[in-house]
Amino acid sequence: MKQNLLIVFFMAGMLSGCGSERHSQVSRAAFRSTVDGKATDLYTLRNARGLEMTVTNFGGRVVELWVPDRDGNFADIVLGHDNLGAYVDQTGERFLGATIGRYGNRIAAGRFTLDGKEYTLPLNDGPNSLHGGAKGFDMVVWDVVEVTPQKIVLACLSPDGDQGYPGNLKVTMTYELTDDNSFVITHEAATDRRTVVNLTHHSFFNLHGAGGPPINDHELMIAADFFTPVDSTLIPTGRLMPVEGTPMDFRRPAPIGSRLDADFEQLRHGHGYDHNWVLSRRSTHDLELAATVYEPAAGRYMEVWTTEPGIQFYGGNFFDGSLVGKGGKSYGRRASLALETQHFPDSPNHPGFPSTVLGSGQRYRHVCVYKFSTR
User: Fold this and answer.
1) CA atoms of 242 and 318, how far apart (whole Å)
2) Does residue 202 carry a catalytic annotation?
3) What does the longest C-alpha to C-alpha distance in the chain come to?
4) Are 106 and 346 in contact (CB under 8 A)?
5) pLDDT tens-digit series, residues 89-98
6) According to the model, what pLDDT value does residue 19 have?
7) Quick check: 287 and 369 in contact, CB under 8 A?
């Protein structure tokens, strides 16, 4: 009887310890500071299966995301830094793991007209405004509303005139790790005056592990029959172009690098992939599958689900190895990818695109889910 009890206690201990190993390799102390008079910190989320994520309220950034491979080995699959200062005083890529707003992607010449009035935005991407301007949501300290073991709720108020945008915009954002190994992002916003809104998330993924080899071997599927072609400054022309017969056709999974050398004007404009795909949706607001990514060596598989009409796929074309991130690893060209669910770039200047106008009394809501498994 005593022996049986010992076995029961041993098994209970083993079960309670399943997935209990902590993975994070960054120090919370390295993120505890103040920026613009507001306190910053680092928060750890963890689900019952061991998926682990660290988040800082500076920019609502995902700092680490630890995901298992087919053998149960965990790796941190998002690019980032191991201290706050590297984000605040960034050189090179500014948007690692960040929340993007008020307007994700580009607005041509930093100008748009709403209700007969022209608004001017800061130019921070050559002749265009990118990802909310010089000080977008990625560079502000968010208020921490709620923290639980698997969820964090952040909020911010973007005042009327912030980066040139009209209206006081109140934003609430939730990050949650669910027990089916999903990372769920919910953006919600309301305004007191008509404005334009296009929020998105900007983690850079490498399913080998952050700082690993290029992602050209990752097999990508995008559920889209069309994309929005761009000019040489990556502003949409306003047309929708079929993917069929082009290197933009990812309706069936294909290695990202398999057609990068094709003689195709759009690849020259983006120095690779940096385009918006028009998702083949069955509804306007339901959560639907937008893309999948498979890394065959370790077997990590990521699904991307969204309520949005578009997805921007960026293949890490502008990294050059000079940016050093967590653990002293350098981030090289095409060693990461971003899949940003969103409305289309430059929508305020294209009446034929799905509208990004939000009016007083309306509610903006955008859900994006990155779901992880193995094959």
Assistant:
1) 26
2) yes
3) 84
4) yes
5) 988 899 999 9
6) 52
7) yes
Strands (DSSP E) contained in 307-362 are 310-314, 323-324, 330-331, 338-342, 357-358
User: Contact, 113 vs 192, CB < 8 A?
Assistant: no
Q: pLDDT tens digits, residue range 145-182?
A: 999 999 999 999 999 999 999 999 999 999 999 999 99
pLDDT tens digits for range 65-121: 999 999 999 999 999 999 999 999 988 899 999 999 999 999 999 999 999 999 999
Annotated active-site residue in 340, 343, 350, 366 = 340
Name the token pair of 140.
């502000």
CA distance 341 to 7: 49
Among residues 81, 202, 218, 275, the one annotated as catalytic is 202
Name the amino acid, one letter, at 282.
R
Alpha helices, DSSP H, located in the chain: 2-17, 84-88, 265-270
- SS3 assignment, position 156: strand
**288 catalytic residue (yes or no):** no
Residue 18 clears pLDDT 60, i.e. is over it: no
DSSP-based three-state secondary structure for 349: helix
Q: Is the peptide bond before 102 cis (omega within 30 degrees of 0)?
A: yes
Query: Looking up tokens 């990155």, which residue turns up?
Result: 370
Q: Is the predicted pLDDT of residue 13 greater than 50, yes or no?
A: no
**Cα 308 off chain centre by:** 13
